[in-house]
Amino acid sequence: MLDYNLTETQLQMVELAGKIGKEKIVPARAELDETGEFPWDIIKILAEAGLFGIYIPEEYGGLGFGNFDNCLVIEELSKYCIGVSVSFAASGLGAYPILLFGSDEQKQKYLPDIAAGTKLAAFGITESGAGSDASAIRTAAKKDTDSYILEGTKQWITNAGEAETYSVIAITNKAKGARGASAFIVEKGTPGFDFSKKENKLGIRASATRELIFEDCKIPKENLLSREGMGFIVAMKTFDQTRPGIAAQAVGLAQGALNEAILYAHERKTFGKPIIAHQAVQHMLADMATQIEACRALTYQSARYCDSGAQDMAKYSAMAKMYASDVCMQVTTDVVQIFGGYGYMKEYPVEKMMRDAKILQIYEGTNQIQRNVIGQFLIKEAAGKKIG
Fold first, then answer.
1. Are the C-beta atoms of residues 156 and 87 closer than 8 Å to each other?
2. How far apart are CA 309 and CA 303, in angstroms?
3. CATH topology classification for 122-229
4. Would you kindly state where each structural domain of the chain is located, as residue ranges?
5. What does CATH list as the number for 232-383?
6. pLDDT tens digits, one per residue of 248-291
7. What are φ and ψ of residue 7, in 5° steps?
């Protein structure tokens, strides 16, 4: 890969994540995929290594680094299994609403445990009728003196049932539409808060995906994030920060698949020579390597752009997520093709990688939604130039 001028600390974090990947994730990934068991043993190792606190400020128990540093670790873990890496990264998705919009009291209460990895976080916005159209959510939060009462369900929530801390978007004023949504912190174990069974998925099977169920769930008013009506701003600003992490998953997974293909292409022989000596295979590998490096450059720069606090970070976060996940799906498909019939068998990890890749084009906003986001920025930019 290109030299991205990583610091010594960043290189050490990547090396540590890689060591955990090779020694702990690789031996377990096939069984985790088969059983769908949540990777608690690996999560605890990542916690002991201090990796959960990378992006959280030191005053709240973290390491005080940034989005970019976190993406480096997500990328490295994703080379080995994104079922594990998404369980790690989704805790950040749940933590960012608190980090970005929480009061100091809320941050002091929740972030240290998340930074330590002793408690995972999760984020709840998607519902059965409100996925890409997040403004259609129906889960409601009704004010009741010093509390809010939550009613409704959230669907396909990563880390659900395993996490202890949930950032949840609910409607507090239906008449205001999207501006009537608010964000809340809900703790596991709160009466009236429950989970459905774990979903049986195509890929990322080690990760936990469940419904959040709220029935007369009473939470203190202090658990409101920011103020009423800020729910969709909280959600969108959170996604601006976390979509580069999805891109990092895609880059890591694609690189891991390419690594497997190169090794196999050296070993597998046809017509008396390794298949890597065939120009057709060389061209496939060359295209993959070039596309992955382009995705990595866009992902790294978008993460650094997020760390800069730029106002138009949403545009570049969407670009990174959309482009990297599309490339990852193509790369993993081509890697299976290089393996031929062997690639279709569970004996090799590449069929799992292809299954895992698909979700990257779907969660945290489908790639069609990412194109909408990018398109809206282009329209605004063109209008601004016209006015100027």
1. no
2. 10
3. Butyryl-CoA Dehydrogenase, subunit A; domain 2 (2.40.110)
4. 8-119, 122-229, 232-383
5. 1.20.140.10
6. 999 999 999 999 999 999 999 999 999 999 999 999 999 999 99
7. -75, 165
> What residues are annotated to the active site?
364
At residue 271, the pLDDT reads 94
Number of neighbours of residue 327 by Cβ within 10 angstroms? 24
Distance CA 277, CA 37 (A): 40
- Do residues 91 and 242 make contact, with C-beta atoms less than 8 angstroms apart? no
Give the integer Cα–Cα distance in Å for 185 and 154.
14
CB 73 within 8 A of CB 54: yes
- Residues 360, 250 contacting (CB under 8 angstroms): yes
pLDDT at 67 over 50: yes
C-alpha angle 35-71-381 in degrees, rounded to nearest 5? 120
Residue 272 three-state SS: coil
Residue 1 has a CB neighbour count (10 Å cut-off) of 10
CATH number of 8-119: 1.10.540.10
Query: What DSSP state is assigned to residue 127?
Result: B
Exposed/middle/buried for 385, CB within 10 Å: 0-12, 13-18, 19+?
exposed
Cα(51)–Cα(163) distance, integer angstroms: 17
Question: Which residues in 44-81 are b (16+ Cβ under 10 Å) and which e?
Answer: ebbbeeebbbbbbeeebbbbebbbbbbbbbbbbbbbbb
CB-side exposure of 1: number of CA atoms within 13 Å? 19
Cβ neighbours of residue 25 closer than 8 Å, sequence gap 6 or more: 39, 42, 77, 80, 81, 84
